[in-house]
Design brief:
Belongs to the EIF-2B alpha/beta/delta subunits family. MtnA subfamily. It holds the Pfam family IF-2B. By secondary structure, this protein is α/β, with parallel strands linked by helices. It has 2 domains: 133 residues, translation initiation factor eif-2b, domain 1 (Four Helix Bundle (Hemerythrin (Met), subunit A), Up-down Bundle), CATH 1.20.120; 210 residues, Translation initiation factor eif-2b, domain 2 (Rossmann fold), CATH 3.40.50. It contains 11 helices and 14 strands. A hairpin with a 2-residue loop joins strand 13 and strand 14. Helix 1 packs antiparallel against helix 2 and helix 2 runs antiparallel to helix 5.
């Protein structure tokens, strides 16, 4: 299958697919300004933890490429400014901060040359490396995770974890793609994923594009289908995984995990090791709260169609946290982690 790259560095520009318009039309945008990349991340034109990390790295590349001075210290100041702007876009997805730290570290190492051009080249090279590594790790995760899918399985997935959420190919959707490529006759159940309908809009679009059988359901139908034995396995992604095995993912994940546990349905998390955060505890995990209008309105970028009273108060956390006792296993590009996760995840990171 052709790998769709939703965000890329083309020459001295960042080019991205505005996912807010999918599936109605494909709108590609471009910029030479890292602040515009930051806005695109904040407004969810680019979304999905790995894709956010890649976009942030490319934002840093723009800051370096379009710094007109030749003094190394001035360039480093510009990069630090860009890093702060990009870091303040979305607080939960750890790939964002991981990518920014990695590019900044490479820039600082390159200052030993005393050349601003060498720093620019190092930043661009590291950003492109992050993109390529993500695609490669997605393919590896796909092959590893596909071994857990049997011919004839019905797989439920939540939100979007495909090419549109990564540098290309996908995490949980990458596992589904790999199983399909192996010739396994599978069917996917995609949740709607309110309030922005990433499952209905993005996941269904990707699966239909690849010819993989998919059925769409409302988020409220998961328990009913599991009670009728219509779901064999759950595969979904993560925006941040703690060493304890707790993980933050799109709102609605926790209730799916509870239902899966109750009905004896295996529940798998698929994410690269860059999504594992060994530095913070559960108490330190920040859950992003988004614009209440995302819940009040239909998720159409073209017009503001309200589905409720316009001034009703709203809760709108973008993510929830699922505890490790509800997780069957965590699939990474380095292998599969099984409980206890504080042991298995640590081994994978060290490996």
């Amino acid at each position: 299958m052709e790998v769709l790259k939703p965000v890329d560095l083309v020459g001295d520009k960042v080019v991205w697919l505005d996912t807010r318009y999918i599936p109605w039309k494909e709108v590609w945008k471009e910029t030479t300004d890292y602040k515009e990349v930051a806005r695109a991340i904040k407004d969810m034109e680019v979304r999905g933890a790995p894709a956010i990390g890649v976009a942030a790295a490319f934002g840093m590349a723009l800051a370096a490429l379009h710094y007109e001075g030749e003094d190394v210290e001035g360039l480093l100041r510009r990069l630090r400014e860009a890093k702060e702007v990009l870091a303040n876009t979305r607080p939960t997805a750890v790939n964002l901060f991981w990518a920014l730290e990695r590019v900044m570290k490479r820039a600082e190492e390159a200052t030993r040359s005393g050349s601003a051009e060498a720093v620019r080249e190092a930043v661009v090279e590291e950003a492109r490396k992050i993109q390529q590594e993500d695609i490669e790790s997605n393919v590896k995760m796909g092959k590893i995770g596909a071994k857990l899918i049997e011919d004839g399985d019905v797989v439920l997935t939540h939100c979007n974890t495909g090419s549109l959420a990564t540098a290309g190919y996908g995490t949980a959707l990458g596992v589904i793609r790999a199983a399909w490529e192996e010739g396994k006759r599978i069917e996917v159940i995609a949740t709607e994923t309110r309030p922005l309908d990433q499952g209905a809009r993005l996941t269904v679009w990707e699966l239909k594009r690849d010819g993989i059988p998919v059925k769409l359901i409302a988020d409220t139908m998961v328990g009913y289908l599991m009670s009728k034995g219509k779901v064999d396995k759950v595969f979904l992604g993560a925006d941040r995984i703690l060493l304890s095995g707790h993980f933050a993912n799109k709102i609605g994940t926790y209730q799916i995990a509870v239902l899966a546990k109750h009905h004896g349905v295996p529940f798998y998390v698929v994410a690269p090791t860059s999504t594992v955060d060994p530095k913070i505890t559960l108490d330190e995990l920040v859950i992003e709260e988004r614009d209440p209008d995302e819940v009040r309105r239909c998720p159409y970028p073209f017009e503001k169609v309200y589905v409720t009273v316009r001034d009703v108060e709203v809760y709108n956390p973008a993510f929830d946290v699922t505890p490790p006792e509800l997780v069957t296993a965590i699939i990474t590009e380095r292998g599969i982690a099984y409980p206890p996760f504080y042991v298995s995840l640590k081994k994978l990171l060290e490996g």
